[in-house]
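Lab manual, section 2.4: Encoding a predicted structure.

Procedure: take the sequence of the chain (287 residues), apply the prediction step described in section 2.3, and record the output as structure tokens. A sample record is shown.
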Amino acid sequence: MSGSDRDLVVALRAELAGIDPARPCDRRAEAAGLSSGRTTREGPVARLIFRLRRDRDRDAGGGDDAAPLFDWDASAEHCRMAWLRGLFLARGSLSLAGGRTHLEFVIDPAAAAPLAARLTAAGLPASSRIRRGRGVVTWKNGDTIGLFLRRIGAGATLLELEARQVSRALRGDLNRVINAESANLQRSVGAAGRQMAAIDELTASGELAEQPYVVRSVAEARRETPESTLSELAERLGLHRSAVQRALERLERLALLPPDDERRRPPRRGARRRAGSDRTRVGGPLA
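Recorded output:
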């Protein structure tokens, strides 16, 4: 993950940690989510833990150090999101490496499957597994991760994250289009170069003049506009694209044949008709 991506994740966590729930039930739910984590060195999260503990002691009159409990099924939606926010800050991690978004919770093995089921029921489908003895609940879908972060309170930082994702996707699409166009251009330039060389060779040997009219016309058009595509040549000559392609392929094929190859010499006009009449005279009419 690049430095800018890492800074964005840090800013996102700081933004979530800076949320001050107005409802006492939300504060208790978030404290319950945070209590499942270990001691943190993140300043914003540490301050959030201190603030929630202070509020809890004030509401309870002090003296109660027991970790708060959370009942998912009996809690309202806003309390569930507050609990998930605390759980993400305590046990969650977000990665933006390689332009891919990955969010996971690392929790107790027995709690992984229930958490995945709760998230799925809340419209945030997640997968769970056991990794090196710890439960892992994972999202790899950028849309689902964005929805989750929005529901737990992310705002400006999430907009920046989504803007970067859109920018990366656009750059990726643009690079693919440019690469495809570049490859097509290279193939076209290579083909035009071979065709021009074949035309020059056949012109020098006088064989081009012996080719059919369409082949000569295509050769002349290619010589005048080497950069034209097959479609442009076809439109200019009033031919089908396939006819232009066949003519150019014929020119390349003839130029590749040895000079003494009979296939380089097109049959003379009427030769096929004379050959047929000779066979009739020699063999006689068929019975």
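Check your result against the sample. The mean pLDDT is 83.
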